[in-house]
Design a protein that fits this description.
By secondary structure, the protein is of the alpha+beta class. The chain contains 4 helices and 5 strands, in the order βααβββαβα. Helix content is 35%, strand content 24%. A 5-stranded mixed beta sheet has the order 1-2-3-4-5, sandwiched between helices. Helix 1 crosses helix 2. The model has no long low-confidence stretch (mean pLDDT 95).
């Protein structure tokens, strides 16, 4: 298995993975919308995406990071916004390899940490994150203000 940074040539393989991710969170979107969103991320350079492929070159999963600043640490950090592994590729180290690639990328850029959120029901993901040293935040609550209908 290999994990590499996503480039324009990876978009066709990435779109179905991203569709699977959105389906997991029950917010399906069209392939056209997903392609446009991902292409914009690559063109703007405002996110870092990684894709995992098996030995035959078939895409197995992806992760997406966004840069942010930690005001409390006075240092850069990264938001690990998205992580998805095909159901057929789970429990084979793909998620861990993607998480490790994200960590290495953030460390190489002097980040003070990685932040992520996941659904309360995503127990498999939580187990992976905790096994890799992520600590569940017990001090802060996350809030969301939807601006979609304003």
């Amino acid at each position: 298995m290999s994990v590499t940074a996503v480039g324009d040539a990876d978009l066709d393989a990435l779109v179905p993975l991203f569709a699977g991710y959105l389906q997991f969170y029950q917010v399906p979107r069209s392939a056209t919308e997903i392609h446009a969103f991902l292409l914009e991320r690559l063109q703007r350079g405002d996110a870092q995406l990684f894709i995992a492929r098996d030995e035959q070159g078939m895409a197995q999963g992806f992760t997406q990071l966004y840069p942010l600043q930690s005001s409390l640490a006075l240092a850069p950090a990264w938001l690990l916004s998205d992580l998805f592994v095909l159901p057929s590729a789970r429990r084979q180290g793909v998620g861990e390899a993607l998480m490790n690639a994200a960590r290495a990328y953030a460390e190489a850029r002097g980040a003070c940490g990685l932040q992520l959120e996941t659904a309360k029901t995503n127990l498999a993901g939580q187990a992976l994150y905790e096994r890799l040293g992520y600590v569940r935040d017990e001090l802060y609550l996350t809030y969301w203000l939807s601006l979609a209908n304003t």
